[in-house]
Amino acid sequence: MPFSSLGLSSPITDALTDLGYETPTPIQRKAIPIALSGKNIVAAAQTGTGKTASFVLPILEQLKDKTTCRGKRIHALILTPTRELAMQIEASIADYGKNLELTSMAMYGGTDIAEQKQSLIWGVNILVATPGRLLDMAHQRALHFDELKTLVLDEADRMLDMGFIDDINR
Fold first, then answer.
1. For 95-120, how does the pLDDT look when each residue is reduced to its tens digit (9 = 90+)?
2. How does DSSP classify residue 68?
3. 37: DSSP letter
4. Which residues touch 139 (CB under 8 Å, ≥6 apart)?
5. Contact 155, 89 (CB under 8 A)
6. Which of the 8 DSSP states describes residue 113?
7. Residues 6+ apart with CB under 8 A from 60
8. CA 95, CA 135: separation in Å to the nearest integer?
9. Which of 64, 97, 137, 156 has the CB geometry, 3.0–4.6 Å to 143, for a possible disulfide?
10. Which residues, at least 6 apart from 90, have a Cβ–Cβ distance to it below 8 Å?
11. What predicted TM-score, i.e. pTM, was given to this entire model?
């Protein structure tokens, strides 16, 4: 079963081919069609099974014809517990979406906030963020959620274990 049979367009499947991806993993076969239909998903799978692609690929497909967001707006938010995971997911977005004209960024603490604010001013289609920095930006009115269409809580159980429950509730 090729990735195109899941409803993914050629700019995305071409990028996957370039990366050496031949067939979807079980989590991808199950999750991608459901996500493309607009339904909510709760999924769990072991590390290395392709979970990131199972949520990133549908986001790319749904946004492929979008233009850059208005300033301080995002179309999709992927919330993740650590900066390392945020950087890894954003790198996957860049790889899978290399044939698309979408913008993405990883946003996390411990780095220059001014640079991240500037990127948001220009508008970002897909934002990968840690809870703390996301809240900082929202409180500073550097980010608005009125154009947000898709929310992914990656490793939600880990975020809860780390004490981000109050942040997530906010």
1. 999 999 999 999 999 998 999 999 99
2. P
3. T
4. none
5. no
6. H
7. 12, 93, 96, 97, 100, 102, 126
8. 27
9. 137
10. 104, 105, 106, 128
11. 0.92
